[in-house]
Write a structure and sequence with these properties.
By secondary structure, the protein is of the alpha/beta class. Helices cover 40% and strands 13% of the residues. Helix 1 crosses helix 2, helix 2 packs parallel to helix 3 and helix 3 packs parallel to helix 4. The protein binds 3-methylbut-3-enyl trihydrogen diphosphate (IPE) (2 copies) and magnesium ion.
Length: 258
């Protein structure tokens, strides 16, 4: 399959073993393992990235159908510039092409797309496609779909610090005004709640500079499945695992108080 291949738009009902009231409001995903998926098939790494686009499209639809309000996907990290030039170039072109191709369906499906990361460093043609998609979908009321592109958690925190420091320097803000809420409003993710669940595919047990601030109390779900193979059944498993979690946020459960 390629990035052009069509994906069914028919909506899927929430599986009976999932509780609607306990669905995560915001799911974040580190889409990892595209290269290994391709390598196992004797294909070039870029074929894994192409297949990965289909996986993301299906996941977005599934999240929408099952009542997940926001999906954030890690598409390109600030460290991914260190990959071979042809792979980086392929990814930038792929992002651009997919955005151009998918905008119609995103409108039809009421998706609000936004991008988090240092977008100014992306190729101009991609920046234009991003601006267009964000502007076109900004009044949509459906799922909020954030794509982390040239995103780095440390870099995001630093740019927030610089912006806040400038306001203090100019006398618009006092150091004691800086609290968690103000800080969060200076992050790329200012308009979305912190993720309830982080999914990482391909078995790596690390954050890789993703949403360092926002993941403070997220549940983690790591699967060995490679991203191109992460289908609706796999997401169903992740949801089942999430619904069994006991989120204590540092407190003690009522039943354990004595
Ligand atoms: C994730 O898959 C996609 C991006 C980082 C763009 P990888 O390309 O990291 O695949 P592996 O980890 O090498 O298998
Ligand atoms: C994280 O995957 C970045 C994205 C999925 C975009 P990487 O493959 O870049 O992470 P590492 O190198 O395994 O930590
Ligand atoms: Mg990887």
């Amino acid at each position: 399959m390629t990035a052009n291949s069509s994906v069914s738009t028919a909506s899927t009902a929430l599986p009976q073993d999932l509780e609607q009231g306990r669905m995560p409001a915001h799911v974040a995903v580190i889409m990892d393992g595209n290269g290994r998926w391709a390598k196992r098939r004797g294909l070039p790494r870029i074929m894994g990235h192409r297949k990965g686009v289909d996986t993301l499209k299906k996941l977005l639809r599934c999240c929408r159908d099952w009542g997940v309000g926001a999906l954030t996907a890690y598409a390109f990290s600030t460290e991914n510039w260190g990959r071979p030039t042809h792979e980086v170039d392929f990814l930038m072109t792929l992002f651009e092409r997919v955005l151009r191709q998918e905008i119609k369906e995103m409108m039809a499906e009421d998706v609000r797309i936004q991008f988090v990361g240092n977008l100014a460093a992306l190729p101009d043609t991609l920046q234009r496609e991003i601006d267009r998609a964000v502007t076109m979908t900004q009044a949509n009321q459906g799922i909020r779909f954030s794509v982390a592109t040239n995103y780095g958690g440390r870099q995001e925190i630093l740019q927030a610090c610089r912006a806040i420091a400038t306001q203090v320097q100019q006398g618009h803000l006092q150091p004691e005004d800086i609290d968690e809420s103000l800080f969060s409003r200076h992050l790329y993710t200012a308009n979305i709640s912190d993720p309830d669940l982080l999914i990482r595919t391909s078995g790596e047990m690390r954050i890789s500079n993703f949403l360092l601030w926002q993941l403070a109390y997220s549940e983690f779900y790591i699967t060995d499945t490679l991203w191109p193979d992460f289908d609706t059944d796999e997401f169903h498993q992740a949801m089942k695992a999430f619904q069994k979690r006991d989120r204590r946020f540092g407190k003690v459960n009522d039943s354990e108080e004595t």
